[in-house]
Structures are given as C-alpha cells and as structure tokens.
C-alpha cells in the first residue's frame, strides 16, 4: 500500500476561509494564509485552496492570495475556482501553486482537460467532481453544487482519466460537513475502475473515518476542512493514530 496523504482544504469566500454543511450555511473559519502556515507546520502532506465563489460569480481565483499562501508553505498546494483556460492556470502556477483543480469548466468543455495536460502535464491537473446520490445513481453537480446535471459520476471519472488528468478529487455532497464518514462505497468503486489517485472529500469527523476511507474506500488521500479549522482533530494526532491502525502515513 502506497503512503496515504492527509490534505486540509481551505474553502475561500471573499478572502476568508469558510465551511458549511452540504455545501450551504457557510461560517467563517479564519485567515487562509495563517491556516495554511499552521497546517504545513503540523505535518499536512498537501493543501487544497478552493475559491468556492469564483465560478458562481464569474471571477478568477484570487491570484495574490495564492501568492501569499504559497510564500508561507513548503508542501504541495492545489488551487481551484473559476479556472477555465490555459491563461488562468499559467497565472496560478506562476503565483506559486503546484497543481490546479478544475470542476465545472471541465464538465462544460471536456477538451479543456486535454489542453491543460498537453501544456502543463498530468501531474499538475486535478479534476474535482462534486456528486450527489439520487436514488441509486451518483449525479455530478456544478457551480459549487448548485447546478445538477444528468452526468454519471463513474462515467465522467473514467473520461477524466482517459483525457489525462493526474488525480480526481471526489466530494460527496451528501456527506459534506456531516462528520458521519466518507462515501466509501462510491470511493471504492472509483478506485477499482480507475488507475489515477482518488482524493476522498466530504464527511470526515473522526480518526476512524480516515482509517475506513483508506481501507474500505481504497482512497489514496483524504481531504478535510472543519475538523482541522476548528481544531477538533490535530493533524499530528490523526497521523499517529492512523500509523497505529496500520495505515502507511508520513509522520
């Protein structure tokens, strides 16, 4: 089993870190630059920085904020929100991001994935997929979860891999912010059908949830927000517990 990664997520709205439940009811969680610095120091393997209102409000991710965050951290850093062109990615990478995450723009124009991979390489391109279970099917949602589509999660994930993306960040909208555990059944199916790494997102609330998603969900990395922002679980403590549970993790 390859080393698993722990990834704090900083959802940004109006320059502040926010967190909600099921993608709504957002509350302030602190300054993103300060939090990024703390998480890097505490042993996070990577960071994800998502400007959650960038696509909705038709504006670009705050490149200057990316620059200030990248200035403070020495671990890989993914940036997403409102990215729809080679120019957008170029600006973010030049401001210090290691990878970019695309979501709505990729569903609307899948060729964007191929174009970005050709220009920057697979290792730079993460495709985020927000999905909700409707009856027996997982359906992809866009614009921060506000716009439902008929696109099937698993079919889209396969296409994303075929187009060259380096990773998939899968968020279960049903689990987001609930602290009841990750969507391990869907994660396990994704992992069994794909060869690229899958990042689990949505539902972290206890150390056992991370253990379960690495073992039962076969996730390559686990992303969480509120439990770190509000200090419900410390990263160092989480990693030590995972090590005891037999999960290969970098301490």
Layout: helices, strands, pairs:
Blueprint: E1 5-13, E2 16-21, E3 24-30, H1 32-42, E4 47-51, H2 63-72, E5 77-80, H3 86-94, E6 99-102, H4 104-108, H5 111-120, E7 125-134, E8 137-142, E9 147-152, H6 153-162, E10 167-172, H7 184-193, E11 198-201, H8 207-215, E12 221-224, H9 226-229, H10 235-244
Parallel strand pairs: 1-4, 1-12, 4-5, 5-6, 6-7, 7-10, 10-11, 11-12
Antiparallel strand pairs: 1-2, 2-3, 7-8, 8-9
Helix pairs in contact: 1-2
Provide an overview of this structure.
By secondary structure, the chain is an alpha/beta fold. The protein has a single domain, classed as Aldolase class I (TIM Barrel, Alpha-Beta Barrel), CATH 3.20.20. 35% of the residues lie in helices and 28% in strands. The chain has ten helices and twelve strands. The chain has helices at 32-42, 63-72, 86-94, 104-108, 111-120, 153-162, 184-193, 207-215, 226-229, 235-244, and strands at residues 5-13, 16-21, 24-30, 47-51, 77-80, 99-102, 125-134, 137-142, 147-152, 167-172, 198-201, 221-224. It has an eight-stranded parallel β-barrel, surrounded by six helices. Strand 5 (77-80), helix 3 (86-94) and strand 6 form a beta-alpha-beta unit. Helix 1 (32-42) runs parallel beside helix 2 (63-72). The longest helix is centred in the first third of the chain and has 11 residues, at 32-42. The radius of gyration is 16 Å and the shape is globular. The model has no long low-confidence stretch (mean pLDDT 90).
